[in-house]
From TrEMBL, chain A:
HAMAP family (UniProt xref): HscB
Gene3D superfamilies the UniProt entry points to: DnaJ domain, HscB, C-terminal domain
SMART domains in UniProt: DnaJ (SM00271)
UniProt keyword list: Chaperone
InterPro entries, A to Z: DnaJ_domain, HscB, HscB_C_sf, HscB_oligo_C, J_dom_sf
Keyword Flavoprotein: no
Annotated family: Belongs to the HscB family.
Subunit comment: Interacts with HscA and stimulates its ATPase activity.
Repeat keyword on record: no
GO BP terms in the entry: [2Fe-2S] cluster assembly; protein complex oligomerization; protein folding
Protein name, entry field: Co-chaperone protein HscB homolog
Length: 170, 625
């Protein structure tokens, strides 16, 4: 299923988020099961399925990683099912340094500092992915898949930083 | 235009006829029912003028008594007076007795789910709840003077699948048509009429007797979107009472034995003190202390508001920490919150109000009685769902309160749908066989946030059978987990390469099987077999008229554009057949006629849906230019 099509948006990485939100509201009003509380069973089933798609599509399109992944899926590259891991040695080293920094950070301030650094890495990574997906050649798409995998690592780190801040604050 | 004659008088509802939708707050301690009357949603009173119905059921040899009478006489027959049955819903007996010791009830030893043994027979929590719901339904019918079309029933936001399913089953047993299970905090937000505001973020702080939860909602042009929920299912006003009781016991230097002996008395005076301190700065009371000899000695008890606040400060702080986490989950800041809604009797405590106001930086809304606010919101939603307000823009988007996952190797849980995902939602997961020629497979579904199977709640075990025999790893079974708007799970499975639909046998870990529901429904109508038939026939006839009405409208609107002559005449023929069958009164035949219409009109319905979506979205694009 092409989620860009469902939301009447061009199938590209860069999307208008306010338009996405606006279309989400419109689609909810059209397809939510509560609109069919006294409809026939057939309509209930049909709209329940459609509304679940509307929700999933919104989640997928809203976040850059899943949007990029979905776009690659439409271009024939499945990220979720492949066994490939990041082979970039430099990135792996970088990854280890980040992990050590996270382990060493023992104050909320230090963790916040890490979060700021992580955020700028994520933003830069997103820009790289955007550029690759715009080119849309076979090799650029492959490269984009690699970069998306790296971005997933970065975001995982971000949530671990968050979790550690939570435990320190509690 | 022959189709215009299809609607027979009395068979379909006239377009302007008002239908009655009721809202029900099925509470642990008390329950309420509400409905819209003269444009205003109000809670409905019984003949004596009571709005609250104590959620207490007394079973005698020849009667079932619900409410005040049952509660006030509970001391006389505690073993057969079931209180707080909501705590048993969707739980095993062991779960409940672990938290609540010394329950006076007698339980059947035959089942792991609790079954109360009474002189009237054995009853499970679903049946007990259905007796409370029946009393509310009867009250609503008497009060409104009309038949009830449907009900919206509220549940705590943190209720898991088993607890929700149990609540829905109970309603079905009591003969109510459930329009929706609605989360309590969402209902409260509706009650305050906040949907009339353009845009904003709402926090709902709900502190009841035994539970606390907080929800963060975003409102945009009538659409309430739940962003996050959080809470503590073991923190409430009762804990305040415990702290005050301990304090009183300490000031009186009671020893353990004396404390135990006076437990009920201490709790009662603590509750009195708490309630008094909602409006006063000091509480003075008398406690009749029971001695080992059986005599009583009077003690004067004084509790100042200051002392009370000190005692409960840590608990209140804990609720604020939960609010903080919920805001974080929702990804909104405190400044974004425009309104704070207070729900639950325990929000009458001044320190609670002050701390909440302090944290959010604004005075919380308290103008609606915190005990009634949930029922009122449910009634407003019910009125919309039965179709009395076709122009209403209000829409509620709820979230899954707890993550859904499946058991994987080593007793670990793999999350499939994370908590706070907007529902309805569907997610597919692929499984493969690990032995040559394997034709069956078991899937264990769990709900919760922890990593180990034993720390999550087991919802059901599914056995997939009918998998085509292949080499190990050859079969790819796609299992789809679908959660509907009520937060209820439904599972389907298919083998991908062959397209074979695998059979699913569900073994619910806590709830009841479909067949059990049916047999309970039948036994509740044992003396009225005829009623059962009549009810089923009526349900089918109503469904038939729904189908007819919907198809007539659809044909008039889009028949010319979306159907060729052949398709159209096939659908029309099936509709004529349905009209004839519906009149005849054979339940099975009506079902079949409806299925036939469904089958023939399936593509048409899908085309219409796609057309309406395209039209609405392209309309937006024009606006944007």
């Amino acid at each position: 299923m092409n989620y860009f099509e469902l939301y009447n948006l061009p199938a590209q990485f860069e999307i208008d988020l306010s338009k996405l939100k606006q279309h989400y509201q419109t689609l909810q009003k059209l397809t939510h099961p509560d609109r069919f509380a006294s409809a026939s069973e057939q309509q209930k089933r049909m709209y329940l399925t459609k509304n679940a798609q509307v929700n999933d599509a919104y989640t997928v399109l809203r976040s850059p990683v899943s949007r990029g992944e979905h776009l690659l899926g439409l271009r024939g590259i499945e990220l979720a099912n492949e066994q490939e891991t990041v082979g970039d040695v430099n990135f792996l080293m970088q990854q280890m340094e980040w992990r050590e920094a996270l382990e060493d950070a023992d104050s909320v301030d230090a963790l916040n500092q890490l979060a700021v650094e992580n955020k700028s890495e994520v933003d830069a990574q997103e820009a790289t992915i955007r550029a690759l997906l715009e080119k849309n050649t076979e090799s650029d798409n492959k490269q984009a898949a690699d970069e998306l995998r790296k971005m997933k690592f970065m975001l995982k780190l971000a949530s671990e930083i968050d979790a550690k801040i939570d435990t320190l604050e509690a | 235009m022959a189709l215009l004659q299809i609607a027979e008088p009395g068979q379909s509802a006239a377009p302007h006829e008002r239908k009655i939708g009721i809202g029900i707050d099925l509470g642990t301690t008390n329950s309420l029912v509400s409905a819209v009357r003269s444009g205003q949603c109000v809670t409905l009173a019984d003949e004596q003028g009571h709005h609250l119905l104590p959620s207490v059921v007394h079973y005698a040899t020849d009667s079932i008594d619900v409410g005040f009478h049952a509660r006030d006489n509970s001391n006389a027959d505690p073993a057969n007076t079931i209180m707080s049955v909501k705590r048993f819903m969707g739980r095993t007996l062991a779960d409940v007795t672990q938290h609540w010791h010394q329950l006076p009830y007698q339980f059947s030893s035959e089942t792991t789910s609790p079954r109360f043994i009474t002189p009237k027979g054995e009853f499970n929590p679903i049946q007990v709840s259905s007796h409370i719901l029946s009393a509310l339904k009867t009250r609503a019918e008497a009060s409104m003077g009309e038949e009830i079309t449907g009900a919206v029933i509220t549940v705590p936001a943190y209720f898991d699948d088993a607890q929700r399913q149990g609540t829905k089953d109970a309603a079905q047993l009591s003969g109510l048509n459930v329009l929706r299970l609605l989360n309590e905090p969402t209902a409260a937000a509706i009650a305050y009429g906040l949907d009339s505001e353009e845009e904003g973020v709402i926090a709902v702080y709900d502190l009841g007797g035994g539970t606390f939860d907080v929800s963060i909602l975003r409102l945009n042009k009538g659409v309430f979107e739940v962003l996050a929920t959080g809470g503590d299912s073991a923190l409430g006003g009762d804990d305040f009472d415990h702290l005050v009781a301990d304090y009183v016991s300490n000031t009186l230097h009671l020893d353990d034995a004396s404390q135990k002996l006076n437990h009920r008395r201490l709790m009662n005076i603590a509750k009195q003190a708490k309630e008094c301190l909602s409006d006063n700065t000091t509480f003075n009371g008398e406690l009749q202390l029971l001695q080992a000899s059986g005599e009583t000695v009077q003690s004067n008890i004084t509790v100042s508001l200051e002392t009370f606040n000190e005692l409960i400060a840590d608990l209140v702080k804990k609720t604020i920490a939960t609010c903080k986490r919920a805001l974080k989950d929702a990804d909104v800041s405190i400044d974004d919150v425009n309104n704070v809604v207070m729900v639950g009797g325990s929000t009458r405590v001044p320190l609670v109000r002050a701390q909440v106001a302090d944290f959010f930086g604004k005075v919380p809304l308290t103008s609606i009685d915190p005990d009634k606010v949930v029922a009122i919101g449910a009634g407003i939603q019910a009125d919309i769902l039965v179709g009395n307000k076709p122009d209403s823009d209000m829409l509620l988007l709820d979230v899954l309160p707890l993550s859904l996952g499946i058991e994987t190797m080593g007793g670990l849980v793999e999350k499939i749908i994370p908590r706070n995902t907007t529902i309805p939602v569907a997610k597919a997961q692929e499984f493969t066989t690990f032995k040559d020629g394997q034709t069956a497979m078991m899937v264990h579904v769990l709900q919760g946030e922890r990593e180990l199977v034993e720390d999550c709640r087991s919802l059901a075990k599914f056995t997939l059978t009918g998998i085509p025999p292949m080499v190990a790893g050859g079969a790819h079974i796609r299992v789809t987990f679908q959660v509907d708007a009520d937060g209820l799970l439904n599972v389907t499975a298919m083998e991908k390469s062959t397209g074979v639909q695998a059979e699913i046998q569900v073994k619910p870990s806590y709830g009841l099987e479909e067949s059990e529901i049916l047999s309970m429904l039948q036994s509740s109508m044992q003396n009225a077999k005829h009623d059962m038939q009549a009810r089923m026939l009526k349900e089918q006839q109503v469904e038939a008229s729904r189908v007819l009405e919907a198809m007539q409208g659809a044909l008039a609107e889009d028949g010319d554009e979306l159907l060729n002559d052949e398709e159209r005449s096939a659908i029309e023929a099936s509709l004529f057949a349905l009209v004839d069958t519906a009149k005849a009164g054979d339940i099975e035949a009506i079902k079949q006629a409806i299925t036939k219409v469904d089958k023939l009109s399936q593509d048409f319905a899908a085309r219409r849906m796609d057309k309406s979506i395209q039209k609405a979205l392209s309309g937006h694009s024009v606006d944007d230019i």
